[in-house]
Amino acid sequence: MPNVIQIRHALLANSHAKNDAPMGSAEIHVLNLVHPVRGSRLGAVNTVGEHMLKCGHIIPAICGENTSGFCRECTTGTKETSPTMNLSCGHVVYVEELDRHVGLPEIIQLHSDGSLDRVDAGSLNSANLFCPVCLAKFDNIPRYSILTGLERLRENIDSLLLNVGQKYQMLGKRLLYHENALRDTFKSFREEIRPTPLSAAQNRLLVQERASGLAEVRTHILETKEQLVMPLERNLISLHKQLHNDNLLSKTNFHFGLRFALLFYRCRYAFLRDQIKISSFLLALDDPSFQTRILAESLRRTAIMHGKDSIGKIGSITIECESKLLKTLEVETRLLQLGFYCLVKRGQRLNCFQGKDLTDDASITADEPDDDIIADLGGKGREKFDIESSIRRMVLLCRQYPKSAGLYVEQIESIRHEVHSGFKPVYLFPAETRVVERAWGMASRHGLGKCENWHFYPAADFDECPECGKEEVEADKPNYETFLAEDKFLSWMRSGSLD
Predict the structure, then answer these.
(1) What is the 3-state secondary structure (H, E, C) of 250-314?
(2) Cβ contact 499:438 at 8 Å
(3) Which of 81, 264, 371, 380 is most solvent-facing, going by the fewest CB within 10 Å?
(4) pLDDT in tens, 277-301
(5) Angle, nearest 10°, between helix axes 230-243 and 153-184?
(6) Which range of residues forms the domain containing residue 336?
(7) pTM
(8) With b meaning 16 or more CB within 10 Å and e meaning fewer, what string describes 129-148?
(9) Residues 107 and 164 grouped into a single domain
């Protein structure tokens, strides 16, 4: 007879995000009435108690396991007995009765051969965390892990990850669209600017409206990260700790939180890059009232302030990428960090060209956060920024991972040139380098894979993990020989019945 594991409903995995919505939400709650033994597999409980048979005699019993129905004292009793639960108050109850008592509508039985059965457990409305006999509260009792919809657990998690991946691809695509729009419309924008005192308010309005598209994308990125990505990652980590079973839910090295953080800073970089470009244009205009110069100085200072702040915060993201072995993402973060460095130095040079404003001799370090809404995206505090070592690290990673990080070789060479020459803000992350974004947009639930470093990725689009270059780890195939019941088969051959 196959070993039977009693599993109770408690997992609620739900994503309310719609395809046409800018954001979504996902929650996974673990209703852990009693806690499993740390380090044990699902169903392995070491607490030994006693169980009374129907004949009145006591036999040893392991908490939560099927007990023997054979009585050595009077050779009577039932052929099979239900699993029992030894509560801390000393009372012993059947698992089915306990589940019914705490208000669970049904029980799922997971057999060792992987098959599942549903058993009706009644329909009470409230969960009572106390003994049904003496009403004593119980907790920290060795018990099976608790799940809901076990047969759909992996499917639900993959669907949630795909939902996040598709939103990541969608927001990256929208960001690329608005980046290109800023470049394509700059000529017409210059023609609308008027260097006269009466046009000062109109000029400011033109600058503000120009960045409205990026501001909308920025808001959607933050909302998606806060309401969908981070709750999902936190709850999956908690769920893995609760299960203590890699066969049901293996360890995962999450990267979506970092990717959405980087997406935010890419949006900020595109915005500040355009601000520096506008400031440079306005400073060249002949305006006797200095209104355009005042506007240019405001844009320049904004770019320098936010650029310095971003350099330090991206440094914190880089450290986390290294700890999670996200090689490609590390190259992207270092590349963007150098982009902000060039942007800040370019803004400081604009001040030198004019020679009137306050000096900008401050070193390139991270200032105190100036925007509370992004305080959780990249860390806080001052981070040392070593340009040369960062470039060497990127070049090394590009050589080691030519199919993923290697796509940024030309970008690294371009920004290396600007760092040592003109500090012109480089156009980063062109469409041909965004293979990971495109892959997530086309991924399917059956095409998700996981590498040796526990990164999940669209396996159908990559021969190896695009984050670290490791190959996909295939799930262990079950050993069906362990499920053979030879004695039952021989009995059936002799009698024609399995009973």
Answers:
(1) CCCCCCHHHHHHHHHHHHHHHHHHHHHHHHHHHHCCCCCCCHHHHHHHHHHHHHHHHHHHHHHHH
(2) no
(3) 371
(4) 999 999 888 877 788 888 999 999 9
(5) 160
(6) 154-221+254-439
(7) 0.64
(8) eebeeeeeebeebbbbbbbb
(9) no
